[in-house]
Amino acid sequence: MEFQTTEQQMCYDRITPWMQDLFGGSVLKFEDEPLFVINFGSAVASTRVTPWDEDDALITTRSYVVTDIDVTPELTYYLLRENNGIHFGRFALDAENDIVFEHSLVGSTCDQLELRYSVTTVIKLADAYDDEIVTRWGGKRALDRWSSW
What share of the chain has pLDDT > 90, as a percent? Predict the structure, then answer.
């Protein structure tokens, strides 16, 4: 695996055993990039370590909540209002208009407790919201999307 910076590699090496300790057999570690994938209920979340500036790294956990959805003003209003009550992370639309939920941590200061809260918050909120969004606005949950490939 190649890393873009020393800080990215140091962060990845530090959180790898934490991910195993926290999520055990439910975590999939990629061999070719600094990425972990976890499945919970109908949600799938990825945790990626990326460089941040020249002297740090970001740990970003992202879940595709709903894909293949028609974005409407009502839906975007709903997501913005829900963001207002969420303490860690945010809903967003990616370049393909898929609904994602993500949260980032500063790699150099992250500890195991912060990582646990970040990852579990993302995946639990994605699992909690995906059914409601699909019922109200259509689209596919992450698990449905990947099981159809």
Answer: 87
118, 88 Cβ separation under 8 angstroms: yes
pLDDT in tens, 70-110: 999 999 999 999 999 998 999 999 999 999 999 999 999 99
Q: How far apart are CA 75 and CA 34, in angstroms?
A: 33
Q: H or E segment at 33?
A: none
Written as six digits, the tokens of 146 are 């990947």
DSSP one-letter string for 35-94: EEEEEETTEEEEEEEEEETTTEEEEEEEEEEEES----HHHHHHHHHHHHT-SS-EEEE-
Under a CB-based contact definition with an 8 Å cutoff, are residues 45 and 63 in contact? yes
